[in-house]
Design brief:
about 25% helix, globular, three-stranded antiparallel β-sheet, alpha+beta, about 70 residues, single chain
Length: about 70
């Protein structure tokens, strides 16, 4: 299934994307749960290549989560 969350990107560390949800809660999402578009966004803002994670994600069902581009 797919999961969608409205959140602001905080950072990336140890294979997890840290997000701040609109309700004020911070969460850490494993990169393999993100859609390709979100992985590309994380690569763009962090400069960290996530090629391995993208390979895993591309074989998984598409996710509808999208990170908030506003930092």
């Amino acid at each position: 299934g797919s999961f969608k969350v409205a959140a602001q990107f905080i950072g990336y560390d140890d294979g997890k994307v840290h997000l701040h949800k609109q309700n004020g809660v911070s969460i850490a999402v494993p990169t393999f749960k993100l859609c390709v578009e979100d992985l590309e966004y994380v690569e763009k803002v962090t400069g960290v290549p996530l090629n391995d994670e993208r390979m895993v994600t591309s074989s998984a069902p598409p996710s509808s989560s999208h990170l908030d581009a506003e930092a």
